[in-house]
Here is the input.
Amino acid sequence: VIVVDAQTSSRSYRITVGHGLLTSLDGLWEGVIAPRRVVVCCDATVAALYLDPVRESLAAAGLDVIALVIPPGEGEKSPQRLALIYDRLYDESITRTDAVVSLGGGVVGDLAGYAAATYLRGVRFVQVPTTLLAMVDASVGGKVAVDFRSGKNHIGTFYQPWLVVADLDTLRTLPDAEMRSGGAEVVKYALLGGGALLERVERYAGSGVLPDEEIVATCVREKVTVVARDEREESGARALLNLGHTVGHAIEAATGFEGYSHGQAVGLGLRAMLWLSERCTGLDRAAAARGQRLLTSMGLPERLEDVSTDDVVGLISRDKKAVGGGVKYVLLRELGVPAPRETVAPGLEREVVEWLAHR
Ligand SMILES: NC(=O)c1ccc[n+]([C@@H]2O[C@H](COP(=O)([O-])OP(=O)(O)OC[C@H]3O[C@@H](n4cnc5c(N)ncnc54)[C@H](O)[C@@H]3O)[C@@H](O)[C@H]2O)c1
Ligand SMILES: [Zn+2]
Here is the structure.
């Protein structure tokens, strides 16, 4: 078991990464929260796999457990589903010292987290991520949200959990495509961090084994360090976590959030970032090629396909992080040495997208 401490101005909390943790949640939150009632929110897929053991162990500890099961899918991260969750919390007379536990991927984490943040101005909240993406990214850092109309995460806030418990055993049932999607974020941290993490991730990628405690905990540590410096995305430090995401988001949007998963789009965004870094921030060719190889061995797409490159180029400039003076990119000077606020000549934005489509 590896424990990572997260410190933010609003709350400090422990992120526990290990095996066999699902059935000892009450032990892990002892001294942190003391709920009487626990609302376990998960989607139907995760419920079928993991709800019973969680429910039984919490009930055995004398807690009153309420299961709140929703259908799977990003479509549930909606104001409509949120209202149904509020209804349930109200009907069950949940109080602020009771707990909402999100058991599942980033969809449930963001949704249940936003409900917990806003219901009664904040109910105790515990993240129990069961996807690689949620373990290394979504469950840590306090961003919670629902989608609104065409805006992803358009309604949301910052609400740090009281505790995060990542049980690596749950990854055994995670479909390959979801593993690769989380793998893209793992590559992101490896490129940002460089050094030993990069080497460890290179050994892991393509090995067919599940990520170990050290990989997950190191990624979590990277995120926690950045979030501690900039909890609410104000100073710009948190923007580092957008490595590969400017082009990635444009690709997701250009395909109506259907052609590529977030992870696949970010994988392509990271390829674009390496290409741009070679031209704009002096990343050497061998380092860029090493990054490209890692993306390939992680099973991420090689090429942008079935998407209009014009649409992608147009959407890049509409990135929500764009401020006066154009889109600011996170690029790399070296592997492990980010350059956080780079502008790129407009011609290069088109060139890199064309390169992605024809490489
Ligand atoms: N808050 C943040 O900082 C942050 C960061 C990154 C992403 N996100 C959000 O996270 C969401 C994506 O999260 P995700 O990729 O985890 O998707 P997800 O929550 O939809 O989970 C993916 C699929 O895997 C299934 N699943 C989950 N755990 C499983 C397991 N252990 N075994 C088998 N199946 C399992 C789910 O039922 C679902 O169908 C997006 O909405 C994104 O906006 C948030
Ligand atoms: Zn991402």
